[in-house]
Q: What sequence folds into this?
């Protein structure tokens, strides 16, 4: 057994504070994802508020286009909404909010380079709009232009020196630039400005965690937990620290909280499954491993644990699926092919089982693994004579 461990459209963008929505993702223990960007939906009402001097005919045309675009947004048709916004630009080319609306929708589709360009055009027309700065910084970060993203966060800090979110975003960009010390200073500045900002404490804790400084990571992470007990990423990271320190009981409680808050946290499901297995609870372990591989089929540690437990329990068809996933991930791992062969044989597919085991044997030979060769050869002889 492996032991590895929408807002409503009418409310959107009506204030700078609302536009500075925190967009955080610490999945995989990546503190650099502590970035901040505009993540709220444009609305026809909000955009129309910023119209320049238009004739009555133009204003009516613009209102119709924006209303139609709003319907597309509400139905999730972002490409259609963008096309209508592009038409709106022909009517009101100097309206910064139309540009920012297009930028937002491009970002929703993952087109962050295009989003950044439209945010720049919005800023050309409204250079001190903090929401546009946040949107630009986030889009640059997501398109991996970390130097430029950091520069925009610095611009935000110049405009508003007490913008804690800007310091958090700056720290995330600096981490991607491998400037950990400067990132830590940015996060600490965020904490000094906003001492009750759970996101800032989490970012500091994750930075230490990624360095392997678990003792230093604990205090800021526990502070983040105290400020916001519903941050699943904090619970998951605390659990990993406690597992590393041998504190299974606290890790167990944190992991249960983590998967309650985020059912798609594959890593936490896997760790929880390991604890259940260590406690002799195979049923709950199997359930957690299954949820882990459903959330992330590429999590090979979970696939291996899931496949081995299925094999042990005689659930061969499901074990085959798990081991085939592992073969794709580790084509030169003879043990994976060996176990795939066992599952295929148990399912009654003798020819495929022999083929898988023969492939395992060839890899054992290439790796000069005499015990593996002996084991595979003996089993192949039994199967072929069966």
A:
């Amino acid at each position: 057994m492996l032991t590895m461990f929408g807002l409503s459209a009418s409310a959107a963008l009506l204030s700078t504070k609302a536009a500075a929505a925190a967009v955080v993702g610490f999945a995989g223990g990546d503190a650099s994802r502590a970035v901040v960007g505009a993540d709220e939906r444009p609305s026809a009402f909000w955009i129309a508020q910023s119209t320049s001097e238009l004739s009555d005919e133009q204003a009516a045309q613009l209102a119709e286009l924006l209303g139609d675009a709003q319907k597309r947004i509400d139905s999730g048709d972002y490409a259609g909404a963008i096309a209508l916004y592009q038409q709106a630009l022909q009517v009101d080319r100097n309206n910064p909010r139309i540009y920012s609306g297009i930028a937002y929708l491009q970002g929703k589709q993952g087109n962050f380079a295009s989003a950044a360009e439209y945010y720049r055009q919005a800023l050309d027309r409204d250079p001190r709009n903090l929401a546009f700065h946040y949107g630009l910084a986030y889009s640059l970060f997501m398109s991996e232009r970390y130097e430029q993203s950091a520069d925009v966060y610095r611009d935000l800090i110049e405009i508003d020196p007490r913008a804690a979110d800007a310091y958090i975003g700056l720290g995330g960009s600096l981490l991607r630039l491998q400037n950990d010390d400067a990132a830590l200073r940015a996060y600490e500045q965020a904490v000094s400005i906003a001492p009750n900002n759970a996101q800032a404490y989490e970012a500091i804790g994750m930075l230490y965690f990624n360095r392997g400084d678990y003792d230093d990571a604990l205090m800021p992470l526990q502070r983040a937990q105290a400020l916001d007990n519903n941050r699943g990423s904090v619970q998951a990271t605390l659990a990993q620290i406690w597992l590393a320190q041998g504190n299974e009981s606290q890790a167990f409680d944190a992991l249960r909280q983590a998967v309650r808050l985020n059912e798609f946290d594959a890593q936490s499901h896997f760790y929880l499954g390991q604890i259940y297995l260590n406690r002799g609870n195979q049923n709950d372990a199997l359930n957690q491993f299954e949820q882990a591989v459903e959330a992330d089929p590429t999590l090979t540690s979970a696939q291996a644990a899931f496949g081995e437990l299925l094999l042990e329990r005689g659930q061969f068809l499901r074990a085959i699926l798990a081991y085939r996933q592992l073969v794709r991930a580790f084509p030169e791992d003879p043990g994976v092919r060996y176990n795939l062969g066992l599952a295929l044989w148990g399912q009654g597919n003798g020819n495929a089982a022999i083929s898988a085991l023969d492939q395992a044997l060839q890899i054992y030979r290439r790796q000069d693994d005499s015990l593996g060769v002996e084991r595979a050869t003996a089993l192949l002889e039994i199967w072929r004579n069966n």
The two ends are 28 Å apart (CA to CA). The chain has 21 helices and two strands.
